[in-house]
Amino acid sequence: MSDSERSGSGDIDPGGQLAAGRCVPCQAGAPAVTAEELARYRSQIPDWTVLVDGGSRRLRRIFTFKDFAEALDFTNRVAELAEREGHHPRLVLEWGRVTVDWWTHKIQDLHMNDLIMAAKTDAMYGNGPA
Q: Cα–Cα 20 to 30 A to 50, which of 8, 62, 111, 112?
């Protein structure tokens, strides 16, 4: 059984590439990402830190830019991605940097959707719009 079949988690492409996956609706009680799943996909999101904030596991990355305008543009592109996928992060915009936190509010933990969105955010940062 695939991860998405097991947990109702994000829809990952057959090759296992997170950035090519799609978020799926998540309900309260959906299973969180297991330690094994996190280890399996960690190489695809190596710059993200797993932390606990307010009792919830989260993925966090700080993205840097040459000025406020670039940071604002990136923030807006992440917001557009979040709207398309129906999954929304915590975004903190500052001069020359944006902090992005992904976690699933309904389960107060990490869901496969969060890993997918972290990979999509990385792709956007490295390659323009995702």
A: 8
Give Cα 99 to chain centroid, integer Å.
12
Number of structural domains in the chain: 1
CATH number of the domain encompassing residue 120: 3.30.1360.20
The low-confidence residues of the chain, meaning pLDDT below 50, are 1-8, 128-130
Contact predicate 103/56, CB 8 Å: yes
**What is the rounded CA–CA span in Å between residue 106 and residue 119?**
21
Note the pTM of the prediction, 2 decimals. Answer: 0.86
Query: What are the pLDDT digits (tens) for 66-92?
Result: 999 999 999 999 999 999 999 999 999
* Run of H or E residues at 57: strand 56-64
